[in-house]
Design the sequence.
């Protein structure tokens, strides 16, 4: 099974560009056989998140956005599958989407994480955006984080961030 072979690669301690390419190819083969294979989408999300972290490809900045798209697809196709929820939570945290990441936690773990988040509150910033046009794609650091209007401020690491707002027809 292509997914199982890819998962074995994902679990290797030493990861690199060649391993990423192999994982990506195996998971795409699994999806060619079954386009509704939730765990294969979760695997793609994990692989692309790792690419974002490790900068294996020229388009690594775009991989975090792809990872969350794949994770969302995994959760949609397999709402009872734990792998998709786990990867969705991890990817959301990488995107600084603490609320989404927390929503993927089991209730017993959520309380412990809330204590940690309270202690870390001084190490993050809250970014409020006012966009005049609804539906504009908002990205932080190359990763899509939502569409306008945002329901709440974005939580980001303290420091300099590139924020991009895009809507077709607007400059």
Sequence:
């Amino acid at each position: 099974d292509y997914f199982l072979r890819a998962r074995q690669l994902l679990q290797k301690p030493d990861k690199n560009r060649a391993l990423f390419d192999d994982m990506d190819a195996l998971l795409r083969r699994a999806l060619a056989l079954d386009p509704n294979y939730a765990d294969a989408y979760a695997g793609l999300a994990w692989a692309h998140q790792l690419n974002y972290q490790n900068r294996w490809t020229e388009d690594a900045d775009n991989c975090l956005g792809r990872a969350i798209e794949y994770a969302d697809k995994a959760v949609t196709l397999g709402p009872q599958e734990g792998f998709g929820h786990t990867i969705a939570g991890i990817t959301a945290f990488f995107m600084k989407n603490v609320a989404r990441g927390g929503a993927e936690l089991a209730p017993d773990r959520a309380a412990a994480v809330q204590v940690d988040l309270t202690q870390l509150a001084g190490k993050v910033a809250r970014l409020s955006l006012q966009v005049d046009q609804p539906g504009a794609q908002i990205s932080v650091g190359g990763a899509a984080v939502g569409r306008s209007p945002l329901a709440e401020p974005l939580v980001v690491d303290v420091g300099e961030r590139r924020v991009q707002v895009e809507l077709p027809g607007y400059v």
Remarks:
- The mean pLDDT is 82.
- The longest helix spans residues 60-77.
- The beta strands are 124-127, 137-140, 143-147, 154-157, 163-166.
